[in-house]
């Protein structure tokens, strides 16, 4: 007889300490193992060395499958806790942001400005064309009240929508699993024609979890799903190496799941052979996931919900390099994916959205990284958005909580509810039931199946204003006020920051003092301190400080009499 009893530490994550962080990962791994064996109520299991789950509908897929829509939803899990301030840069709060992260902030020269108020790092530049085509929205400050800083608990809450979840207590079914379960109570003996959901990942995420089983077709990794798609073959249950724990009802259950899975393997293979990729994707795991999904969608598989993962976002150290690699891969792959779908005009029917278990803190730590935080943006992609925008209110960086966390401004359940009701056309009553009774506020994301009117919400989609004409192209106007003159001082040429110059116009003779400060507010030196006559003036920064400046962001302050004006400058 096997002892399947396990003791679990259900204490919530307590903070930044790496010892506690490592301990939580041990608990997370142990619980993942239990789930994979089917002991924790999951339909997942090991066949040989592989982890699979039966592919079947869930309450959501049921309503989804029954809904009069061909729309498809792709959930993109950014595993580890994505740093929102390295994803969407708050330009209107830039100085506060940079001061909080003197070693890891995104320099202004590397911010792709999408509106006057917000931008993304240039390493996410592959999304610029999606923005221009109206296929990219970012929702600010997504989270929930008293947000958990635990990987495990945070992941569960985003999956089961139960804010009281702690460790192994709380709701153990997912927002989509509850819906699929209602529609397919006998899915093992009477499965739908196509998988209700498909997930690539080594843990059957609770999103698709029902009371009895997980309702997603899960493969351990993209290699396994590619093998199934290419060959139509799955794993041989008869020759699986079961030990003494796997016998009787358990073995019959596993065989039943495997038989259902085998049926879907053939269905997936047929769709894969019908579809084809028409763009070249990068050779990395995330790009391969999207390339495979594109081929299945173009092959008309019939599955309406997919979930894929991109891991590595637990950036306690070396965040700039790690985050750049991850988000660059994501951006390029998303762009390629929608280009691919556009060949068959299916891009209008596919909505993608990211989610992560939490965000990260405003302030950097001592390891060139950030620690577990709270609110973070959710990114949406697809033609169905009917326009690009930054949605909602960005959290204030000037008013963090006592641990340096951004407070949430958008309840994540509002986004779930909106996607279910307005994109997948599930009735509000059913949606709220599967959000555990939460009366969600529908958000205007550009699509509207229910016909409900949306409450007004901040929407920033205006392109950035063009920079003013450099002063060297303006006629000298002696009647311009001194204050107005220095407010229009600028650094040129902006595209060559190695030795930038400050250029301005003096309408009258006056004494001018220009000082340079680092982003911590410490004075670096004097750039200019002279009596000047009226006319056009310029100062080359590195020449004045004899090339002793290190690369980074600085602030220069111009003083003329009692008038002062400060602006930032990037020096590389």
From TrEMBL:
Region (Disordered): 1-22
Top-level taxonomic group: Bacteria
Protein name listed in UniProt: DUF1501 domain-containing protein
Species whose genome carries this gene: Flagellimonas halotolerans
